[in-house]
Model the fold of this input.
Amino acid sequence: MATNTSKPIATTLPERVLVVEDDAILGLSIEQALEDAGVRHVEICPTSELALDALRREQPDAIVLDVHLADRDDGWAIAELVKTLGPDSPRIIFSTGMPGDIPEEIAALGSVLTKPYDADTLIDLLRQPERVGIISRLRGKLL
Done:
């Protein structure tokens, strides 16, 4: 009898999701899809400044991050800041119409969804175990 050695797919969603999106209709659509799927708290921030304020108040479990915001064209700077919080930092999902604009080393900090995407794709991605980066894999081998 064969045994399954692959990681199980998570069945639960994060409780708190920060959506950094300057397109109001898309932001509300994402919020509704997350709430319908069972996310308990969704906060939408249309600017980098509001997103940073939200992060100072409370750390979310995941961030859906538009990389081209009205106030900044490098929304990934938020991802760089978030990852400095260490191993318990929020999961990052980049949301962009131009994935090639994200520097490769920044894209490696999370997952990338290319707009337009179906809300079910986002929900499925949030249910999957977070992929393990090279540093985490190396740390796991050394300990």
Summary: The beta strands are 16-20, 41-45, 62-66, 91-96, 111-114. The radius of gyration is 15 Å. Residues 35 and 109 are 25 Å apart (CA to CA).
